[in-house]
Amino acid sequence: MYDVNAIRRDFPILSREVNGKPLVYLDNGASAQKPQVVIDAITKGYAEEYANVHRGLHYLSNLATEKYEGVRGIIARFLGVKDEEEIVYTTGTTMGINLVAYGWAMPNLEPGDEIVLSVMEHHANIVPWHFLRERQGAVIKWVDVDSTGWLDPQKVIDAIGPRTKLVAVTHCSNVLGSIVDVRAICDGARAKGVPVLVDGSQAAVHMPVNVAEIGCDFYAVTGHKLYGPSASGAIWISRKRMDEMRPFMGGGDMIREVTRDSVTYNDPPMKFEAGTPGIVQQIGLGVALEYMMGLGMTNIAAHEASLRDYARARLDGLNWVQVQGTTRDKAAIFSFTLDGAGHAHDISTILDKRGVAVRAGQHCAGPLMDHLGLNATCRASFGLYNTTEEVDVLVDALELAHELLG
């Protein structure tokens, strides 16, 4: 049984007040709160078990190494990966995508070669490809979504041409909540011999993910959205693509031997993990993923689907609220504006006075905002600990905002 009230007790911050009101945290799309087990793991990691990893050969170093490296298997299990050596540690999805851009795309793209993106992409899955456009003459091809925020996978496949070298697409829009049929895209791209990178930042939080079933070449996740620490994350890279990559950064454990005249690189995944890593951060991520898997990803998805449906019904009852992204297949993420209201920042400020935390702005999705003809929205994004009662608080706060700004 999924007991959301018991789950909420695992997150100490949810018991606090903001502006004299109980906190209603609906900014999970930006960063999720942390359960006590993660906080305890981080505290213990620094207070009792900290040392650098891999080469210390003393008790604390061996202990830290064992815990740190053990997370690789946890991430592999979370993503449905059989070979944990295909898991590369990162500081988050941004680093993972940049690793692919510098390590795989840069040496493989010639001027005029194409990268296919959807208009829904987060800037983290846009800017690295602009780097290649500016520096190597790569061409970015854009695929739009329809009026409901649905991305037609066939349009992505049809955009693949003879010069296309990569498709990079989100699994779930951080703005619209739209869930993308990445498996269909990967099937079509594979038939044309084109690899696919999937940004899993939002999707992996809300639903079970199995990269083998998806059929992609790269799948990136970020820890701070997965109820883990900031500066933690990973990217799964297929063995074939790993073999085609060169290191992105140099130093630390990514080398086997260095002389005055040469350098010999370590084997993957270490080959792509330079410098002293975020040891405690990754350990905390492992604990967070174990916590989520303990609840059951299917159970989390079902709970959030019920929240989505309830929130959609409540918001649909407010005819002065304009929700962006109305496709039926979406996560519990709602971006909206209010008729006659001022900037999204004004709305979010009023909501904050009622203890409701939402995000306001472009959500690092400039091309999508241009496509929607908007300069900003408010976004309420739900997580595994949110409740229908909190949806009601959100609606009450929106009615106040409408009264004050409408």
UniProtKB/TrEMBL annotation:
GO terms for biological process: cysteine metabolic process. Signal peptide: none annotated. Gene3D superfamilies: Aspartate Aminotransferase, domain 1, Type I PLP-dependent aspartate aminotransferase-like (Major domain). Its cofactor is pyridoxal 5'-phosphate. Residues 24-394 form the Aminotransferase class V domain. Pfam families: Aminotran_5 (PF00266). Belongs to the class-V pyridoxal-phosphate-dependent aminotransferase family. Csd subfamily. This is cysteine desulfurase. It comes from Thetidibacter halocola.
